[in-house]
Automatic annotation (TrEMBL):
Organism from which the protein derives: Corticicoccus populi
InterPro entries: PH-like_dom_sf
Phylogenetic classification of the source organism: Bacteria, Bacillati, Bacillota, Bacilli, Bacillales
Protein's UniProt name: GRAM domain-containing protein
Annotated Gene3D superfamilies: Pleckstrin-homology domain (PH domain)/Phosphotyrosine-binding domain (PTB) (2.30.29.30)
């Protein structure tokens, strides 16, 4: 990956009822989930920062009990992407900061 990586970590992306294991990357231009090569649902999910509407702290349900380990990224077209991550507050903070930096750069242009 040629992009500057701000943050990376393991993450499961929920696709329907199936978790897609992989890695989550935050760069200066997008959030990217790359599915594990061993997972049957291979591929990438790319979320350009300029198309992200919001990032929310979320819970994952385990046997109907809430587990505080997820973030949900909502796109401007209202598509939602839910990820199970470690240090979810740090992920939200860094994505929010990247969005703010991108908006500041656009204002300066």
């Amino acid at each position: 990956m040629a992009e500057d990586i701000i943050k990376k970590g393991t993450a499961n992306r929920w696709q329907g009822i199936d978790p897609v294991k992989g890695k989550l990357y935050l760069t200066r231009s997008r959030v990217l989930h790359i599915a594990s090569a061993l997972h049957f649902r291979r591929g990438e999910t790319s979320m350009p920062l300029d198309e992200i509407k919001s990032v929310e702290i979320d819970d994952n349900l385990l046997y109907k009990l809430p587990v505080p380990n997820a973030i949900t990224i909502t796109m401007k077209d209202d598509t939602r992407h839910k990820f199970v991550v470690n240090r979810r507050k740090d992920w939200k903070k860094k994505i929010d900061r990247a969005l703010e930096d991108m908006n500041n750069e656009n204002i300066e242009k």
